[in-house]
Design goal:
The chain is mostly helical. It has one domain. It has a three-stranded antiparallel beta sheet. A hairpin with a 3-residue loop joins strand 2 and strand 3. The protein is globular. It starts with 12 loop residues before the first helix and ends with a helix. This is DUF4383 domain-containing protein.
Amino acid sequence: MADTGTGSMTATTLQKAATAVAVVFLLVGVLGFIPGITTNYDTMSFAGHHSDAMLLGIFQVSVLHNIVHLLFGVVGLALARTFRGARAYLIGGGVVYAVLWIYGLVIDETSSANFVPLNTADDWLHLILAIGMIGLGVALGREVGTRTTHRTT
């Protein structure tokens, strides 16, 4: 149960969505450290474009990349405890992923600027995450206002 800011201790749909997104990030972070699910696991480096490790054989990962996913999940779980936090996590996280998408498009994948590392599949996934997270934050971010307007005592 979470504090919605309306005096209720029931999690809103927005908070549940933020929690689900956070759990997916935690899962992805853990899966990135599992050989087999991550192909070329033995080539994984801490950071940089030299890592040939691929989550699900598609998304380039490194130790740093996996840690970032884990931290993003932990932050999401913490922020999902309140309505405002959940909304900030989804919209703010979506903005972060939009910036990552643009960053991935403009850097040379073989340069030292690709320190996370990112490949083309990562870039397009970041766009989808940006749209999805911002969309959820905006669409579900009106829920408490609607609920408090129609509240009866």
